[in-house]
Specification:
mainly alpha; 2 domains; 13 helices; disordered N terminus; J_dom_sf
Length: 243
């Protein structure tokens, strides 16, 4: 059985909003999602997005959406979001404590092997929003995996699977589409409506939301590729409307 299909079968939602409430829970142990845990997640997010020395526009858009999602899952407070943003900005400045941070997170919340694997999977979805993974990003994801006690051979297989999935990210059928077609708008659409269309599509294809719906590995990776296409289209139209 394909390794990732197996992992996909046992993964539970990273971002699961239970019963229409704003409380994140884990399907496995029903642990309530807390601000303290959010700090660990945002910190690891900062490490992986800054690992190659920069945060691209596509990564920045995705990070912003994730911070908003986490905030809404906690209490929806602007203060909470600003605090998490400060955590992100502080943690991205120092990558030396990555292993220690992952280990602390695992121990403090008694993360299971499945939970740890799921975190790695979510972080890789963020890494691949640019369509590839750099050597520096591999080093950081490896440190996180070490902190989570994840077998390195398994990690390599997961990364290889992502690489294969994104080999054809610039397939002809996608390259022929205009940014307007990708976002489902026309050239006369007001930019505020373009932004609204972008946000709706980004939420629809957000890999963590797909995982929360119980979608399989293939659907999540396809969603990540689609999100990359959506981000590129939005960035293109944003530049046009600034002219």
């Amino acid at each position: 059985m394909n390794l990732l299909l197996f992992i996909g079968a046992v993964f539970f939602a990273f971002w699961l909003i239970a019963g229409g409430t704003k409380n994140f829970t884990y399907q496995q142990n029903k642990r309530k999602f807390s601000y303290e845990e959010a700090v660990y997640i945002v910190s690891l997010l900062a490490k992986i997005t800054k690992s190659d020395g920069r945060v691209s526009a596509k990564e920045a858009n995705l990070v912003s959406q994730i911070l908003t999602d986490i905030t809404n899952a906690l209490n929806g407070s602007n203060t909470t979001r600003e605090n998490l943003k400060r955590v992100f900005n502080a943690q991205k400045m120092d990558l030396s404590n990555t292993f220690k941070l992952a280990l602390e997170y695992k121990i403090k919340f008694n993360l299971s092997e499945v939970e740890c694997m799921q975190k790695i999977y979510s972080l890789l979805n963020i890494v691949y929003v640019d369509g590839e993974i750099t050597d520096d990003e591999i080093k950081i994801i490896t440190k996180i995996a070490d902190g989570f006690s994840i077998n390195q051979d398994i990690l390599k297989q997961i990364i290889s699977s992502f690489d294969r999935s994104f080999t054809n990210k610039n397939a002809k059928e996608n390259s022929k589409k205009s940014p307007y077609e990708i976002l489902g708008v026309d050239k006369n659409t007001d930019f505020n409506d373009i932004k609204k269309a972008y946000r709706e599509l980004a939420k629809k294809y957000h890999p963590d939301i797909l995982m929360g719906k119980g979608e399989n590995d293939e659907a999540v990776q396809n969603g990540t590729k689609k999100l990359q296409e959506i981000n590129e289209a939005y960035e293109s139209l944003k530049k046009i409307h600034k002219q």
